[in-house]
Amino acid sequence: MIPEESFLDQLKAGEPAAYVMLVERFEGPLYRFFLCDHRNHHTAQEQTAETFAQLVRSLSGMRGGCEQLRAYVFATARHVQQRRWRGHQKEPSSLAEALNVSDPGPSPATVASDREQLERVLDAISHLEDPLRNVLLLRFVEGCSIDEVAEALEMPVGTVKSHIHRSRTRLKQILVEKE
Amino acid sequence: MNDPHDPLPEPGDDPMLEEMLSHLKRLEPPLETRLANRRAIAAELGALLAASEKRHVPWWRRSISIPVPAAACLAVLAALALTSSFRGGHDPSPVRMAAPDQPAERATEEPREKAAIAKHAPDSQPVLEYYATETYLCGIGRVNWESGYSIKEKNHD
User: Fold this and answer.
1) Is the whole-model pTM more than 0.80?
2) Contact between A118 and B23 using a beta-carbon 8 Å cutoff
3) Residue B127, CA distances (Å) to B42, B104, B153 in order
4) Which residues from chain B sit within 8 angstroms of residue A56, using beta carbons?
5) pLDDT tens string B78-100
6) Inter-chain contact B9–A168, Cβ cutoff 8 Å?
7) Which residues of A touch B31 (CB under 8 A)?
8) ipTM of this model?
Protein backbone atom coordinates (compact mmCIF):
# COMPACT_ATOMS: atom_id res chain seq x y z
CA MET A 1 0.00 0.00 0.00
CA ILE A 2 1.39 3.38 -1.03
CA PRO A 3 1.04 6.25 1.48
CA GLU A 4 -1.34 8.96 0.30
CA GLU A 5 1.27 11.73 0.48
CA SER A 6 3.69 9.93 -1.83
CA PHE A 7 0.98 8.51 -4.11
CA LEU A 8 1.06 11.40 -6.57
CA ASP A 9 4.88 11.49 -6.63
CA GLN A 10 4.95 7.80 -7.49
CA LEU A 11 2.37 8.30 -10.21
CA LYS A 12 4.48 11.08 -11.67
CA ALA A 13 7.54 8.83 -11.51
CA GLY A 14 5.67 6.14 -13.46
CA GLU A 15 5.61 3.55 -10.66
CA PRO A 16 3.48 0.57 -11.80
CA ALA A 17 2.23 -0.10 -8.24
CA ALA A 18 0.88 3.45 -8.03
CA TYR A 19 -0.97 2.99 -11.31
CA VAL A 20 -2.55 -0.22 -10.06
CA MET A 21 -3.89 1.82 -7.14
CA LEU A 22 -5.08 4.53 -9.50
CA VAL A 23 -6.99 2.02 -11.61
CA GLU A 24 -8.58 0.41 -8.57
CA ARG A 25 -9.63 3.79 -7.23
CA PHE A 26 -11.01 5.31 -10.40
CA GLU A 27 -12.13 2.58 -12.80
CA GLY A 28 -15.61 2.42 -11.25
CA PRO A 29 -16.24 6.19 -11.20
CA LEU A 30 -14.86 6.63 -14.74
CA TYR A 31 -16.90 3.76 -16.13
CA ARG A 32 -20.08 5.19 -14.57
CA PHE A 33 -19.20 8.66 -15.85
CA PHE A 34 -18.98 7.44 -19.43
CA LEU A 35 -21.85 4.98 -19.21
CA CYS A 36 -24.23 7.71 -18.04
CA ASP A 37 -23.23 9.79 -21.05
CA HIS A 38 -24.32 7.34 -23.75
CA ARG A 39 -25.37 4.08 -22.02
CA ASN A 40 -23.09 2.09 -24.30
CA HIS A 41 -20.95 -0.45 -22.46
CA HIS A 42 -18.34 -0.91 -25.21
CA THR A 43 -17.80 2.79 -25.70
CA ALA A 44 -17.64 3.34 -21.95
CA GLN A 45 -15.03 0.57 -21.69
CA GLU A 46 -12.93 2.07 -24.47
CA GLN A 47 -13.18 5.55 -23.02
CA THR A 48 -12.23 4.37 -19.53
CA ALA A 49 -9.12 2.62 -20.88
CA GLU A 50 -8.30 5.65 -23.02
CA THR A 51 -8.59 7.92 -19.99
CA PHE A 52 -6.12 5.78 -18.04
CA ALA A 53 -3.71 5.77 -20.98
CA GLN A 54 -4.03 9.54 -21.21
CA LEU A 55 -3.38 9.83 -17.48
CA VAL A 56 -0.13 7.85 -17.78
CA ARG A 57 1.00 10.28 -20.47
CA SER A 58 -0.06 13.47 -18.74
CA LEU A 59 0.19 12.92 -14.98
CA SER A 60 3.91 13.74 -14.87
CA GLY A 61 3.00 17.30 -15.82
CA MET A 62 0.11 17.68 -13.35
CA ARG A 63 0.21 20.75 -11.14
CA GLY A 64 -1.14 20.75 -7.61
CA GLY A 65 -1.32 18.20 -4.86
CA CYS A 66 -2.93 14.85 -4.26
CA GLU A 67 -6.19 16.55 -3.20
CA GLN A 68 -6.61 17.69 -6.80
CA LEU A 69 -6.08 14.26 -8.30
CA ARG A 70 -9.77 13.36 -8.52
CA ALA A 71 -10.59 16.62 -10.31
CA TYR A 72 -7.65 16.02 -12.66
CA VAL A 73 -8.84 12.49 -13.45
CA PHE A 74 -12.36 13.69 -14.25
CA ALA A 75 -11.03 16.63 -16.28
CA THR A 76 -9.07 14.11 -18.37
CA ALA A 77 -12.21 11.97 -18.68
CA ARG A 78 -14.15 14.99 -19.86
CA HIS A 79 -11.58 15.65 -22.59
CA VAL A 80 -11.90 12.03 -23.73
CA GLN A 81 -15.69 12.45 -23.68
CA GLN A 82 -15.49 15.62 -25.78
CA ARG A 83 -13.26 13.91 -28.35
CA ARG A 84 -15.97 11.28 -28.84
CA TRP A 85 -18.65 13.93 -29.22
CA ARG A 86 -16.66 15.52 -31.97
CA GLY A 87 -16.03 12.21 -33.74
CA HIS A 88 -19.20 10.17 -33.37
CA GLN A 89 -22.93 10.31 -33.01
CA LYS A 90 -24.53 8.47 -30.14
CA GLU A 91 -24.61 4.72 -30.77
CA PRO A 92 -27.52 2.49 -29.82
CA SER A 93 -27.47 1.31 -26.25
CA SER A 94 -25.70 -1.88 -25.27
CA LEU A 95 -26.18 -1.44 -21.55
CA ALA A 96 -27.75 -4.87 -21.18
CA GLU A 97 -24.45 -6.42 -22.19
CA ALA A 98 -22.63 -4.56 -19.44
CA LEU A 99 -25.21 -5.65 -16.90
CA ASN A 100 -25.01 -9.26 -18.06
CA VAL A 101 -21.26 -9.47 -17.71
CA SER A 102 -21.22 -7.72 -14.32
CA ASP A 103 -20.83 -9.93 -11.32
CA PRO A 104 -24.42 -10.74 -10.31
CA GLY A 105 -23.70 -11.47 -6.62
CA PRO A 106 -27.18 -11.36 -5.05
CA SER A 107 -30.20 -13.50 -5.98
CA PRO A 108 -31.70 -13.32 -9.48
CA ALA A 109 -34.80 -11.49 -8.18
CA THR A 110 -32.71 -8.79 -6.54
CA VAL A 111 -30.55 -8.53 -9.61
CA ALA A 112 -33.60 -8.11 -11.82
CA SER A 113 -35.02 -5.42 -9.55
CA ASP A 114 -31.69 -3.62 -9.32
CA ARG A 115 -31.27 -3.79 -13.06
CA GLU A 116 -34.69 -2.29 -13.59
CA GLN A 117 -33.95 0.54 -11.19
CA LEU A 118 -30.53 1.09 -12.75
CA GLU A 119 -32.03 1.18 -16.23
CA ARG A 120 -34.54 3.72 -15.00
CA VAL A 121 -32.01 6.03 -13.39
CA LEU A 122 -29.57 5.76 -16.31
CA ASP A 123 -32.36 6.58 -18.70
CA ALA A 124 -33.32 9.62 -16.65
CA ILE A 125 -29.70 10.83 -16.32
CA SER A 126 -29.07 10.39 -20.02
CA HIS A 127 -31.98 12.79 -20.66
CA LEU A 128 -30.19 15.55 -18.73
CA GLU A 129 -28.26 18.14 -20.70
CA ASP A 130 -24.46 17.79 -20.66
CA PRO A 131 -23.34 20.20 -17.93
CA LEU A 132 -26.20 19.21 -15.65
CA ARG A 133 -25.52 15.50 -16.13
CA ASN A 134 -21.82 15.78 -15.36
CA VAL A 135 -22.41 18.04 -12.36
CA LEU A 136 -25.03 15.66 -10.96
CA LEU A 137 -22.79 12.64 -11.47
CA LEU A 138 -19.71 14.16 -9.90
CA ARG A 139 -21.57 15.73 -7.00
CA PHE A 140 -24.28 13.18 -6.09
CA VAL A 141 -22.84 9.90 -7.36
CA GLU A 142 -19.10 10.34 -6.90
CA GLY A 143 -19.35 12.73 -3.95
CA CYS A 144 -16.96 15.37 -5.29
CA SER A 145 -16.75 18.73 -3.54
CA ILE A 146 -18.04 21.82 -5.35
CA ASP A 147 -14.45 22.97 -5.95
CA GLU A 148 -13.54 19.59 -7.44
CA VAL A 149 -16.56 19.68 -9.74
CA ALA A 150 -15.66 23.21 -10.82
CA GLU A 151 -12.07 22.21 -11.53
CA ALA A 152 -12.97 18.99 -13.34
CA LEU A 153 -15.58 20.59 -15.54
CA GLU A 154 -13.65 23.85 -15.92
CA MET A 155 -16.48 26.10 -14.85
CA PRO A 156 -16.90 28.76 -12.14
CA VAL A 157 -17.99 27.66 -8.67
CA GLY A 158 -21.14 29.82 -8.96
CA THR A 159 -22.14 28.02 -12.14
CA VAL A 160 -21.56 24.64 -10.48
CA LYS A 161 -23.81 25.62 -7.57
CA SER A 162 -26.51 26.73 -9.96
CA HIS A 163 -26.18 23.49 -11.94
CA ILE A 164 -26.42 21.43 -8.74
CA HIS A 165 -29.83 22.95 -7.99
CA ARG A 166 -31.04 22.62 -11.55
CA SER A 167 -29.76 19.09 -12.13
CA ARG A 168 -31.46 17.72 -9.05
CA THR A 169 -34.76 19.38 -9.84
CA ARG A 170 -34.57 18.30 -13.48
CA LEU A 171 -33.72 14.68 -12.62
CA LYS A 172 -36.69 14.44 -10.26
CA GLN A 173 -38.89 15.94 -12.92
CA ILE A 174 -37.74 13.38 -15.50
CA LEU A 175 -38.21 10.50 -13.06
CA VAL A 176 -41.78 11.63 -12.30
CA GLU A 177 -42.53 12.02 -16.01
CA LYS A 178 -41.26 8.50 -16.71
CA GLU A 179 -43.44 6.87 -14.03
CA MET B 1 -33.58 31.27 -11.28
CA ASN B 2 -32.43 29.79 -8.00
CA ASP B 3 -32.76 31.87 -4.91
CA PRO B 4 -29.21 32.64 -3.73
CA HIS B 5 -30.41 32.18 -0.14
CA ASP B 6 -31.56 28.60 -0.86
CA PRO B 7 -29.38 26.07 0.93
CA LEU B 8 -27.19 24.17 -1.50
CA PRO B 9 -28.40 20.58 -1.90
CA GLU B 10 -25.97 18.14 -0.37
CA PRO B 11 -25.49 14.50 -1.31
CA GLY B 12 -27.73 12.44 0.94
CA ASP B 13 -30.20 15.12 1.96
CA ASP B 14 -32.87 13.82 -0.42
CA PRO B 15 -33.68 10.17 0.46
CA MET B 16 -35.67 9.55 -2.73
CA LEU B 17 -32.86 10.76 -4.97
CA GLU B 18 -30.32 8.97 -2.82
CA GLU B 19 -32.22 5.71 -3.20
CA MET B 20 -32.40 6.14 -6.97
CA LEU B 21 -28.74 6.97 -7.32
CA SER B 22 -27.63 4.16 -5.00
CA HIS B 23 -28.20 1.70 -7.87
CA LEU B 24 -25.84 3.68 -10.01
CA LYS B 25 -23.27 3.99 -7.21
CA ARG B 26 -23.18 0.21 -6.88
CA LEU B 27 -22.54 -0.29 -10.58
CA GLU B 28 -19.03 -1.62 -11.05
CA PRO B 29 -17.25 -2.18 -14.35
CA PRO B 30 -17.26 -5.77 -15.62
CA LEU B 31 -14.11 -7.91 -15.57
CA GLU B 32 -13.55 -7.29 -19.27
CA THR B 33 -13.36 -3.55 -18.62
CA ARG B 34 -11.03 -4.00 -15.68
CA LEU B 35 -8.67 -6.07 -17.80
CA ALA B 36 -8.80 -3.51 -20.61
CA ASN B 37 -7.85 -0.76 -18.15
CA ARG B 38 -4.86 -2.69 -16.88
CA ARG B 39 -3.74 -3.51 -20.40
CA ALA B 40 -3.97 0.16 -21.39
CA ILE B 41 -1.93 1.21 -18.36
CA ALA B 42 0.70 -1.49 -18.98
CA ALA B 43 1.04 -0.53 -22.64
CA GLU B 44 1.47 3.17 -21.86
CA LEU B 45 3.92 2.53 -19.05
CA GLY B 46 5.92 0.26 -21.37
CA ALA B 47 6.03 2.97 -24.02
CA LEU B 48 7.12 5.54 -21.43
CA LEU B 49 9.86 3.24 -20.17
CA ALA B 50 11.13 2.59 -23.69
CA ALA B 51 11.17 6.32 -24.41
CA SER B 52 13.09 7.09 -21.21
CA GLU B 53 15.63 4.34 -21.96
CA LYS B 54 16.13 5.83 -25.42
CA ARG B 55 16.77 9.22 -23.83
CA HIS B 56 19.54 7.72 -21.64
CA VAL B 57 21.48 6.12 -24.51
CA PRO B 58 24.90 7.82 -24.89
CA TRP B 59 25.21 10.06 -27.90
CA TRP B 60 27.55 7.73 -29.77
CA ARG B 61 25.00 4.91 -29.58
CA ARG B 62 22.06 6.98 -30.77
CA SER B 63 20.86 6.71 -34.32
CA ILE B 64 19.78 9.60 -36.44
CA SER B 65 17.46 9.55 -39.38
CA ILE B 66 18.62 11.08 -42.65
CA PRO B 67 17.06 10.71 -46.09
CA VAL B 68 18.33 7.75 -48.12
CA PRO B 69 19.55 9.89 -51.09
CA ALA B 70 21.59 12.06 -48.74
CA ALA B 71 23.06 8.97 -47.07
CA ALA B 72 23.94 7.48 -50.48
CA CYS B 73 25.64 10.71 -51.61
CA LEU B 74 27.65 10.90 -48.40
CA ALA B 75 28.74 7.27 -48.78
CA VAL B 76 29.85 7.83 -52.38
CA LEU B 77 31.77 10.99 -51.46
CA ALA B 78 33.47 9.24 -48.57
CA ALA B 79 34.47 6.32 -50.81
CA LEU B 80 35.89 8.67 -53.43
CA ALA B 81 37.88 10.61 -50.86
CA LEU B 82 39.29 7.40 -49.39
CA THR B 83 40.26 6.00 -52.80
CA SER B 84 42.06 9.18 -53.87
CA SER B 85 43.94 9.41 -50.59
CA PHE B 86 45.27 5.84 -50.89
CA ARG B 87 46.34 6.31 -54.51
CA GLY B 88 49.08 8.67 -53.34
CA GLY B 89 51.02 11.47 -55.17
CA HIS B 90 54.10 9.60 -56.47
CA ASP B 91 56.21 11.64 -58.85
CA PRO B 92 57.42 9.21 -61.51
CA SER B 93 60.27 11.35 -62.79
CA PRO B 94 63.31 11.56 -60.59
CA VAL B 95 64.37 15.01 -59.60
CA ARG B 96 67.56 15.76 -61.34
CA MET B 97 69.62 18.23 -59.53
CA ALA B 98 73.03 19.59 -59.52
CA ALA B 99 74.11 19.05 -63.07
CA PRO B 100 77.78 19.98 -63.29
CA ASP B 101 77.24 22.91 -65.62
CA GLN B 102 73.77 23.95 -64.24
CA PRO B 103 73.88 23.67 -60.47
CA ALA B 104 70.40 23.64 -58.93
CA GLU B 105 69.45 24.94 -55.54
CA ARG B 106 69.57 21.51 -54.02
CA ALA B 107 73.08 21.08 -55.24
CA THR B 108 74.27 23.18 -52.38
CA GLU B 109 73.03 20.44 -50.03
CA GLU B 110 75.20 17.72 -51.50
CA PRO B 111 78.54 16.82 -49.97
CA ARG B 112 81.26 19.18 -50.89
CA GLU B 113 83.76 16.57 -52.10
CA LYS B 114 81.31 14.94 -54.53
CA ALA B 115 80.12 18.26 -55.86
CA ALA B 116 83.71 19.20 -56.49
CA ILE B 117 84.30 16.01 -58.52
CA ALA B 118 81.30 16.82 -60.71
CA LYS B 119 82.38 20.41 -61.12
CA HIS B 120 85.86 19.66 -62.33
CA ALA B 121 84.98 16.78 -64.62
CA PRO B 122 86.12 17.52 -68.22
CA ASP B 123 83.47 17.50 -70.97
CA SER B 124 84.98 14.57 -72.83
CA GLN B 125 84.68 12.24 -69.88
CA PRO B 126 81.67 10.55 -68.22
CA VAL B 127 79.77 12.86 -65.92
CA LEU B 128 78.88 12.12 -62.39
CA GLU B 129 75.21 13.15 -61.95
CA TYR B 130 73.41 13.63 -58.68
CA TYR B 131 69.79 12.50 -58.43
CA ALA B 132 67.13 12.56 -55.76
CA THR B 133 63.74 10.83 -55.81
CA GLU B 134 60.99 11.58 -53.33
CA THR B 135 57.64 9.81 -52.98
CA TYR B 136 54.75 11.57 -51.32
CA LEU B 137 51.47 10.05 -50.13
CA CYS B 138 48.58 12.45 -50.06
CA GLY B 139 47.54 13.23 -46.52
CA ILE B 140 50.61 11.55 -45.00
CA GLY B 141 53.57 13.30 -46.51
CA ARG B 142 56.91 11.97 -47.75
CA VAL B 143 57.10 8.20 -47.50
CA ASN B 144 60.24 7.49 -49.55
CA TRP B 145 63.36 9.44 -50.36
CA GLU B 146 66.24 8.24 -52.41
CA SER B 147 69.30 10.04 -53.68
CA GLY B 148 72.58 9.14 -55.23
CA TYR B 149 75.02 9.68 -58.09
CA SER B 150 74.94 8.16 -61.52
CA ILE B 151 77.65 8.18 -64.14
CA LYS B 152 76.52 9.25 -67.57
CA GLU B 153 78.37 9.59 -70.85
CA LYS B 154 78.14 12.99 -72.47
CA ASN B 155 77.23 13.11 -76.16
CA HIS B 156 79.96 14.43 -78.43
CA ASP B 157 78.64 16.29 -81.41
Assistant:
1) no
2) yes
3) 93, 16, 6
4) 41, 44-45, 48
5) 999 988 887 755 555 544 554 55
6) yes
7) 101, 103
8) 0.82
